[in-house]
Amino acid sequence: MDSPYLFGNFDAAEFCLIAFFVFFAGLVFYLRREDRREGYPLEDDVSGRLEPLGGLFFTAKPKTFLLPHGHGTRTLPDFKRDTRPIAARRSAPMDGAPIEPTGNPLIDGVGPGAWNVRPNHPDLTLEGLPRIVPIRVATDFHVSPEDIDPRGLPVLGVDGLKAGTVSDLWVDRSEALIRYIEVAVDGSGRKVLLPMTMAVVGRRGVKVRAITAAQFADVPRTASPDQVTLLEEEKVVGYYGGGHLYATPDRQEPWL
Which residues of the chain register pLDDT less than 50? Predict the structure, then answer.
């Protein structure tokens, strides 16, 4: 007759339970080391002093990643400190105190408008083509007849004023969707990108709650008229994200 006991009073169920806990503890240990490849070392909130790395148990060994499309390699963790100057000051000398912008927070990357230093080259498809491009380049894309084609419609800021006109749509070749609206800004001759997720498209125009009409003039531009780099995307999205707090003075005041 078969017995559930492997030896003595130690049975198979007990073995499986112990094996699971050992595996789970090892998984947590592995993930805790891997999640510290970027963003470290941390800084003290008040003094700016670098915090300890955490030793063997919390710091992974450097690993070299081979980037696609000939973009070289990247070794992480590299423990490089972000030394970009930020136009802001701490409101109080204590942990967790909010920072107050001293310049234009939409451009300086403060608070919700913060952006990360990503590679300054376009995101690419598996075939090596720029992934996000205007429809004038990706001519095999079109707007469904059942949907509103915003090209030619006015773009209105949160103040209700006209900022410009939609001149084109930028599509994601890999995921077949619209990523950005290209806006020809009135009176400047500039064309800037508006994230599709921050726009409300209607038959009478495109409404934007993030920024005012005048602030469209300072939206970060792309170096190329027909493609956008990963770094440029960070700055563009950060600009509109910051507008939800800094676009108007009343947005910075408490609700209660």
Answer: 1
Q: What is the pLDDT of residues 14-40, one digit of tens each?
A: 888 999 999 999 999 899 888 888 888
For residue 171, give the H/E element and its range.
Answer: strand 162-172
What is the identity of the amino acid at 193?
Answer: L
Residue type at position 180: Y
Residue 18 parent element (H or E): helix 12-34
Instruction: Give the chain's end-to-end CA distance (angstroms, integer).
Output: 74
Q: Which CATH class is domain 118-249?
A: alpha beta
Q: What is the pLDDT of residues 182-219, one digit of tens each?
A: 999 998 889 999 999 999 999 999 999 999 999 999 99
Q: Cα–Cα distance between 140 and 47 in angstroms, integer?
A: 55
User: Alpha carbon of 247 to those of 8, 26, 84, 242, 253: distances in Å?
Assistant: 72, 47, 23, 7, 12
| Contact (CB, 8 A) for 122 and 131 | yes
Q: From 224, 26, 238, 226, select the one nearest 111 (Cα to Cα).
A: 238
Per-domain boundaries in the chain: 5-34, 118-249
Tokens standing for 251?
A: 């947005």
pTM, two decimal places: 0.83
What is the predicted pLDDT for the residue at 6? 62
Residues with Cβ within 8 Å of 87's Cβ and at least 6 positions away in sequence, in order, are 101, 102, 103, 104, 105, 108, 110
Q: What 3-state class would DSSP assign to 206?
A: strand
